[in-house]
Specification:
mainly beta; 3 domains; two-stranded antiparallel ribbon; 19% strand; elongated
Length: 197
C-alpha cells in the first residue's frame, strides 16, 4: 500500500479532502489537481471562470467558442437573420444547412452536431430528462446541470431528505445538511458538543 486514497466522485487531492468544482460536468474532476470538463457557461482549469452570459461556451471569458442560434461575434452579441439557422461565429454569414429540426448545426451528411436546448442525439430527436436543467450532453443523455433537488448523470435521482433545499452534488452528497448538529457526506456524523450550530 502506498497510502494514496482512491477518491469518491466529487472529491480530489492526496487525502480526497477537496471538493471538485460544482461547475464540473457530473461533479467529476482529476484526482491530482481538480481540473475538469466544464458545464456550459464556465471555463478554466477548475471551471471558476464565467463566460459572458451571451456565450454557450468560451475559452477565456472574453471569447465565445459557441453562440446561440442566430448570434455571432466574439461575445455572441451580434444578431444574424438566418431563419432559425446557424451563422458563422466570425462573419455572421448564414451557414447553409439541410439539418433536420431541432438540430442547430449538422454535418454535410445531415447528422446533427448541435441541438436546441432540451434535446440530444444524432438527430436531436431525444429529449433530456426532466430533472436536467434544460440541457444535456449532445451525444448522450448526461445532464450538464441538474435542477435543484436532483442528482445523477440523468438528474433522475432525488437528493436525500437530509439535505437542505439547496440540494446535493451530482454524486448525491448534500451541499448542506438540514440538521445543523450533523455533518459528513451523508449527514450522519454527529457534531461535537463543543461545536457552534
Amino acid at each position: 500500500m502506498n497510502g494514496n486514497c482512491k477518491c469518491k466522485p466529487g472529491y480530489y487531492g492526496s487525502n480526497c479532502d477537496r471538493s471538485c468544482s460544482t461547475n464540473c460536468v457530473n461533479d467529476t474532476c482529476a484526482v491530482i489537481d481538480g481540473s475538469c470538463q466544464c458545464v456550459k457557461g464556465y471555463y478554466g482549469e477548475r471551471c471558476k471562470g464565467t463566460c459572458e452570459n451571451t456565450c454557450q461556451a468560451c475559452t477565456d471569458g472574453q471569447q465565445c467558442t459557441v453562440c446561440p442560434v442566430e448570434r455571432y461575434g466574439p461575445t455572441c452579441t451580434f444578431v444574424c437573420d438566418c431563419n432559425g439557422g446557424s451563422c458563422d461565429i466570425v462573419t455572421g454569414q448564414c451557414v447553409k444547412s439541410t439539418c433536420p429540426s431541432p438540430c442547430t448545426a449538422c454535418s454535410e451528411a445531415g447528422v446533427c452536431t448541435a441541438c436546441r436546448t432540451g434535446f440530444y442525439g444524432t438527430q436531436c430527436n431525444q429529449t433530456c430528462h426532466s430533472g436536467c436543467n434544460g440541457q444535456c450532453e449532445f451525444n448522450m443523455w448526461t445532464c450538464y446541470v441538474c435542477q435543484s433537488g436532483y442528482y445523477g448523470p440523468q438528474c433522475d435521482q432525488k437528493c436525500s431528505h437530509v439535505c437542505t433545499d439547496i440540494g446535493c452534488h451530482q454524486n448525491g452528497t448534500c451541499y448542506r445538511c438540514k440538521d445543523t448538529n450533523v455533518y459528513g457526506l451523508d449527514c450522519t456524523i454527529l457534531c461535537s458538543s463543543l461545536c457552534f450550530n
